[in-house]
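Figure caption, in words: inputs first, then the predicted bound structure.
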Amino acid sequence: MIPTILVTGGAGFIGSHTTVALQEAGYRVLILDNLCNSSPTVLRRIEQITGVEPEFVQADIRDGGALDALFQAHQITAVMHFAGLKAVGESTRLPLAYYDNNVNGSVQLLSAMQRANVNTFVFSSSATVYGDPQKLPLTEDHPRSATNPYGHTKLVVEDILESLYNAQAGWRIARLRYFNPVGAHPSALIGEAPQGVPNNLMPYVAQVAAGQRDRLQVFGSDYDTPDGTGVRDYIHVMDLAQGHVAALRYCEQARQDLLTVNLGTGKGYSVLDMVRAFEQASRKTVAYDIVARRPGDIAACWADTSLAEQKLGWRAGKNIKDMCEDAWRWQAASAG
Ligand code: NAD
Ligand code: UD1
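Bound structure (uridine-diphosphate-N-acetylglucosamine present):
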């Protein structure tokens, strides 16, 4: 029997790339997504890449009945849980929507898994749970904190998973703390498609290079970093996708486990490093202005990747040139 993986939020940015990686690793994928931040066209794009269109159910993770029907109809062996809301600014304006989608949604999903006796779970957490780093690189035992409702939802779901693990034998859980996922599949068939004005750096840079936006605003040049702009650990989304396959395999081999690992590259690049790398990849100019710091931003953040290497036998292979080239190819293809 081919193991079937339920991928919630599989039509979204990271979920779609992970679906490709899962299919290429021999898994059958069933996507559940309410399409609140994605389009069903991604399903055919995935088929163009892998030759297999993933099965798809349009439903909400908060709909227990829909989940029960899904677990009854399919031999699901594991769940990868990407579905959720992810915009930090929006989360401060709409906290209840964030707690409902991200926390209540996760509780509903885990409850349905419990009813169906499925106990292998891979969760999309975030480096945001480290708050303002006390030391770099960030190791998994760094104290956690949250400064906005989005970050708090990740922290709470991490805690819920720990409580569940402690309460009931047999759970195999991976809490994956992503650093900054960027780039796109090299085919340019799938990528990140933010609605409206992008909140994150790389989609904004891509749109400036493409002439869709005039200038990038660089949020602060007075940080304690080599060039004064913010430093982050950007990771290619395909590397991240492979990290998920490795985490799934790790869980499948465990009798029970609660694994918490960083998925990053271990290297930090500044905003201006990324602007220059993007200019080289696109052969376009990315005009920018230095403006005030964005409230809530930290100076620098990058991962200690040794635990992921040791536990998962996984490390990121792509560099910022790959990230920018693939992001640019996707930008050019999706604009055309
Ligand atoms: P995304 O918005 O592209 O994908 C999320 C998907 O979930 C979308 O397709 C959306 O339609 C779906 N969805 C949202 N709420 C749902 C619900 N209640 N029921 C069913 N489907 C629902 O986001 P992404 O960038 O792919 O992020 C995936 C996960 O990774 C999220 O949990 C996010 O918080 C986490 N994460 C993302 C980043 C990042 O920078 N992109 C960083 C760290 C963690
Ligand atoms: C942001 C979120 C974080 C989330 C992550 C997901 C905030 C405060 N933090 O992180 O919780 O987990 O996205 O990827 O929103 N920058 C600019 N100009 C821009 C956009 C960004 O200069 O138009 C700078 C930022 O100041 C930062 C860097 O680029 O130094 C990266 O920003 P971004 O892509 O938004 O990611 P994070 O802030 O790391």
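Residues 216 and 288 are 4 Å apart (CA to CA).
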